[in-house]
């Protein structure tokens, strides 16, 4: 009786907060949208028929496979690699700090991290910086020949002169289409070309005068140069010489260019690299999983580090004395000994991932939420959206419970085995 008296408050709370909601969800899943008509298992059939719910189920499976395993592996690596490092504690503290941030705050942070604009999104700022290191973007992506221009399209985005050029005769390469504000900082005024005996000279410039005025296909005093524009001299389909325009737009080619056609290659007009569309339909789920791993890898690391601290050092030293290298010690001793801890971490993260909601809801833009959808988010959208159907929503909740139960049973069986040892 005394034991029952002490257990009664806990049992009442358990019944009110767990058992009653589960029972009501099962009951409600058997009724229609209004809750007035019994429909049996029709709501469960709707789960199989609805494309959005099936996609949410598929994405949940991707989450269950990728997120816990990735977080556990990273946690294991962090725990092992920092074990004998002097600053290992500080590193573990930094890795664990994201656990102090709520899912909502982490979602807002990573919504900004994954912003498409490299000037705002950290991920694309880094990505674009690396890309532009090896493939520089053009400063004139919108440039094109104007009316009656001596340049014509050559296919593939390049432009060529209508006629072969001659040494001593200045060449004009007028282009339009680049907004004045989009010209590179420090752009100078274009200078008309001066003829040089035995050489091909010319100017590449923006044939547009702000405020109007000026002559077409002529270098006017207020017009801007296309500094750095690449010009190639082509004879018989081969590039015999190439040069870049100076700061004032002028360029000079040797006598080898005499009789050649000048070509402005497509690289001059390549669109600036905008980075990766992290929150597009193809990458939104891996991107959100990345945010989750950032938060929970520290949790895995702390638990695994605690288990690693309990591993007998004599066992590891004996293996090293017997000639085992660090990789063999890690693979054949550390990982098998830590197996119970790894299972605990993995199972805990699987259960956590099953109910993931806030990260997906906050990070994924509305236009791709269907692509990033998971069961917990679909439960919310179905039960409380503009077209709410709490019958189907309750069926999704029951399905989610049924998916979590086997994982919980595995955890309970493991705990019983540990207790019986």
UniProtKB/TrEMBL annotation:
Subcellular location(s) of the protein: Cell membrane
Signal sequence, renumbered to the chain: none
InterPro entries recorded: MetI-like, MetI-like_sf, UgpAE/MalFG_permease
UniProt-listed SUPFAM superfamilies: MetI-like
GO biological process, one term: transmembrane transport
Entry membrane topology: Multi-pass membrane protein
Keywords, sorted A to Z: Cell membrane, Membrane, Transmembrane, Transmembrane helix, Transport
Principal cellular location given in the protein's record: membrane
Any one annotated GO CC term: plasma membrane
Domain of life according to the entry: Bacteria
A Pfam family recorded for this sequence: BPD_transp_1
Sequence intervals crossing the membrane: 61-81, 93-114, 291-312, 333-354, 392-412
Residue span(s) of domain ABC transmembrane type-1: 57-411
Sequence similarity: Belongs to the binding-protein-dependent transport system permease family.
Protein's recorded name: ABC transporter permease
Native species: Streptomyces venezuelae
């Amino acid at each position: 009786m005394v034991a029952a008296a002490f257990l009664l408050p806990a049992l009442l709370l358990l019944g009110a907060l767990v058992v009653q909601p589960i029972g009501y969800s099962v009951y409600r899943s058997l009724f229609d949208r209004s809750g007035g008509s019994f429909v049996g298992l029709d709501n469960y059939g709707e789960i199989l028929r609805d494309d959005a719910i099936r996609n949410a189920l598929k994405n949940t499976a991707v989450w269950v496979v990728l997120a816990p395993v990735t977080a556990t592996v990273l946690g294991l690596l962090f725990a092992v690699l920092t074990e004998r490092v002097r600053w290992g504690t500080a590193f573990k503290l930094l890795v664990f700090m994201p656990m102090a941030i709520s899912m909502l705050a982490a979602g807002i942070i990573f919504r900004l991290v994954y912003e498409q604009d490299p000037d705002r999104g950290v991920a694309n700022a880094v990505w674009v910086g690396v890309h532009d290191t090896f493939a520089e973007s053009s400063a004139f992506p919108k440039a094109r020949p104007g009316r009656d221009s001596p340049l014509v399209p050559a296919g593939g985005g390049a432009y060529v002169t209508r006629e072969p050029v001659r040494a001593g005769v200045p060449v004009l390469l007028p282009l339009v289409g680049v907004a004045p504000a989009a010209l590179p900082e420090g752009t100078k005024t274009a200078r008309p070309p001066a003829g040089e005996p035995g050489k091909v000279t010319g100017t590449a410039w923006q044939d547009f005068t702000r405020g109007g005025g000026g002559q077409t296909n002529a270098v006017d005093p207020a017009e801007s140069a296309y500094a750095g524009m690449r010009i190639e001299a082509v004879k018989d389909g081969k590039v015999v010489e190439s040069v870049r325009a100076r700061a004032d737009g002028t360029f000079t080619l040797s006598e080898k260019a005499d009789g050649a056609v000048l070509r402005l290659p497509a690289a001059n007009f390549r669109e600036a690299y905008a980075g990766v569309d992290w929150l597009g339909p193809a990458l939104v789920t891996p991107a959100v999983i990345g945010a989750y791993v950032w938060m929970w890898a520290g949790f895995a690391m702390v638990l695994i580090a605690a288990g690693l601290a309990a591993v007998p050092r004599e066992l590891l030293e004996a293996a090293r004395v017997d000639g085992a290298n660090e990789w063999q010690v890690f693979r054949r001793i550390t990982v098998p000994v830590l197996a119970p801890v790894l299972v605990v971490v993995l199972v805990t993260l699987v259960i956590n991932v099953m109910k993931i909601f806030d990260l997906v809801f906050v990070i994924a833009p509305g236009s791709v939420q269907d692509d990033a959808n998971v069961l917990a988010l679909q439960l919310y959208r179905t039960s409380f959206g503009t077209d709410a159907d709490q019958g189907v929503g309750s069926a999704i909740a029951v399905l989610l419970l049924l998916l979590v139960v086997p994982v919980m049973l595995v955890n309970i069986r493991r705990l019983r085995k540990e207790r019986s040892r």
